[in-house]
Amino acid sequence: MELFHEFRGILAPELVRLLASLQERRTLPDDLRAILNKDAVYNAVRLAAFDLYDDVDFDEWFTNVLSVELKVKDDNYRIIRRRVCQLIGQWCGVRASQSLRPAMYEALLEPLARRGEDPAVKLAAAEALRSTVDDFNFDLQQFAPYAPHVLSALYDLLVESEECDTKMHVLHVLSYVMERGGRAAGGHAPLFDYLPQLWVHAASHNMLRAAVLSTVVNLVKALGECSPNVRPWILGVVSEATRLTEPAHVYLLEDALELWLALLETATVADPTLLQLAENLCPILNQTTEHLRIVVYIMQAYTLLCPEEFVLGAGGKCMAILEDMLSDMRSEGILAILKMAEICVSVTYPERNIYLGVTVVWPILKRAIKSIISGDELAMVLSVQLCLVSRVILLASDLFYKAVHEVATSLPDLGYDAAKVLGRLLDVWTMKLNLITQVERCKIVVLALAALLTTENPIVIQRFPAILLNITEVLNDVMKSDDGGGYVDGLVSCGGSRPASPLEGRGGAARWEAWGERAGTAHDARRRRLAAAHPAHALDLRAVAHHQLETLKNQVGPKVFEELVQSVDHETLQQIREYIPL
Questions:
Q1: Helix, strand, coil percentages in the chain from 3-state DSSP, rounded to 5
Q2: DSSP H helical ranges for 347-497
Q3: The total number of structural domains that make up the chain
Q4: pLDDT in tens, 403-421
Q5: Of 88, 228, 501, 504, which sits most exposed with the smallest number of CB within 10 A?
Q6: Which residue ranges does the record assign to the Importin-7/11-like TPR repeats domain (predicted)?
Q7: Nearest 5°: phi and psi at 480?
Q8: Which of 117, 138, 159 is the last residue of a domain?
Q9: Residue 184 domain flag
Q10: Helix (H, G, I), strand (E, B), or coil: what is residue 558?
Q11: 171 occurs within a structural domain
Q12: Partner residues linked to 489 by β-bridges
């Protein structure tokens, strides 16, 4: 290819001439020499595809020549059929019009599904199909009518294949088609029946088993559910592949974790086997941080599915391990752990364990308070730390004050004085609020400040001007004019907005659908319920602030309250009075 690039001006016209000469005469199936000559020219055109972009009209060539050659069933012509498949796979991403895609799918399906076709041709067709869906211009609607037939043909090829490497290759294509096709690819029921057999057959071939796991992941995601018939097998496979005492975990762990997450996302209830499986998380966290991100996603999925059972069991142990790891973490890891802690506090627990989430993240909460006081964290980390503390305040301010008192016992620089610790915390909080870029996070943080106003704490009252300034700034951000000329909280009234997600990250555990769309999986539905209860979405900031200020006025009396109001600068008062009467 370097030779072609270097001498393109000489070689390109000659290659185009050779290609044109092939079209002038018919290649007979029994003329092996002519077939091999055509194969060589086709291969050269395939390799030089990008250099021949302006010289070859692929649409015309495919329609009039290549698609016809794929239909020639003569045994000798299998050489050309294989090469044509490779040509299509290469040129689909170089120069093939969007309208040609359905014809390409249909043409490739013919050799792939043909009974008695040479395995090499079928493999080439499978790889070409993978290339057609692995394309920037891939259109799912165009592919959807062919998806079931593609899966059926690939399944047949998988069963027919005897070599492990061939099975791995076919599984790779299957996985990719299901990943790109999603629900349109559907599930292929016989595939679910065959994969357990293949798993047993591949007992001594760990790479093939890894390919099986990857295929099951995409199959479960494509279906959006896990068939009850294969669920026990999948649970057993995940358990085996995530046990660090099993030597095979070196090859299987990554794919097994993905399958575990997919299983949780489709689960509607947590059965004892699924809960028992969670015990495998702690050894993984203890061994390495390599899989931290997906382990945290799995923990989040468990917490949304069965909060009390998970947090009282393996979840609590995992949170203790994560807290111990915080001191050695980079900012990405710290954010993942803090968001996990925020989830623990955000979900709803039974009345008997209503504060269970705060209990399990207690060491992380205290560490967050100390970190905020130090004022050294990056803005993004500070933002999530303040949100975690705010969640606790909105849930139970007494627990917040208890945490502050415990933090004070480890801060000699502040004289072990809880009042000084609280003062320092509020000073950093109110000064650095403008570092929070997400308006939803800003809102929950000032909701917590408003909640503290009525806790009758003199340290909080001393910061009244700063707190009122913060509330005013966020009111300016969230309040929108309505049709009647008044103001409404945009985050509450706007159906299209979404609260800041502690689940943000990679893959299905992280993606938010457009607000109001029907959830795709059981996990999506659980996330929506959590989002609906998010304070930024559920509480009107103006109403809350007004209520808290009125309550404070009743607590301290009109005279003292007026003195507090007069301590606020004129510009802040002027702005807040647009929303709240003072």
A1: 75, 0, 25
A2: 356-360, 362-374, 379-395, 397-408, 418-431, 439-453, 458-462, 464-478, 490-493
A3: 2
A4: 999 999 999 999 999 999 9
A5: 228
A6: 211-579
A7: -125, 150
A8: 138
A9: no
A10: helix
A11: no
A12: 479
